[in-house]
Amino acid sequence: MSGSNYLKRRELTAALLARREGALVVPGLGSPTWDCFAAGGSDDYLYSWGGMGLAVPTALGLALARPKRRVLCMTGDGEIMMGIGALAVVASQAPANLGILVLDNEHFGETGRQPGLTGLGTDLCGIARGAGIGRTLDVTAMDQFDALAELMFRTPGPTFAVAKIALTDEPWALPEKDGAVIARRFRAAAESA
Length: 193
Ligand SMILES: Cc1ncc(C[n+]2csc(CCOP(=O)(O)OP(=O)(O)O)c2C)c(N)n1
Fold this sequence. Notes:
By secondary structure, this protein is of the alpha/beta class. It is built from eight helices and seven strands; from the N terminus they run αβααβααβββαβαβα. The chain has one domain: Thiamin diphosphate (ThDP)-binding fold, Pyr/PP domains (Rossmann fold, 3-Layer(aba) Sandwich), CATH 3.40.50. The strands form two sheets. A five-stranded parallel β-sheet has the order 1-2-3-7-6, sandwiched between helices. α5 packs across α6. The longest helix has 13 residues, at 179-191. The N and C termini lie far apart (42 Å). Thiamine diphosphate (TPP) is lined by residues 28-31, 50, 52, 76-79, 105, 107-111, 116.
């Protein structure tokens, strides 16, 4: 289970975002969205205020529409399980510019720490490989950080990683909430460079 030896989500996400080299980021709803804002925020982040299960499909569409930009989907274990079939579509479309990272605390943290399926045996990297995504990585220690950053931002995609993170109560860091503002800002960022 998520003991104190598991990765610290804010430390991991801030370090990873600092290595993104201009990648566009699609965070899942709740905690990953707040992680992005807590790490400093950017117009390159498509903050989510809902749509559980839609982070991977959204990132897939973005990666296909912007093949010259790297795209990182960073989401929770509960969020991705709700739309897990999307991994098969990712594999079939095979966008070389897409990396997917699951921040796996084995719970639905935001809504009250209900236990999730990854703490009961579900192997997300195994599911990703079964869907046809060949390059996967299970991350359980910070000494794998360089390999994770390489996989997310440099290795031809689609790539997939699961980072086991501690179940913690981070201070909420809430970004802009107006969906139209977020979308307009993000579209401009995605169209530049
Ligand atoms: C369709 C739908 N069902 C339920 C919710 C409520 N909800 C919001 S976040 C969340 C849990 C997310 O868990 P996870 O992705 O593992 O992220 P964590 O907060 O644990 O980092 C739930 C159930 C929702 N927003 N949409």
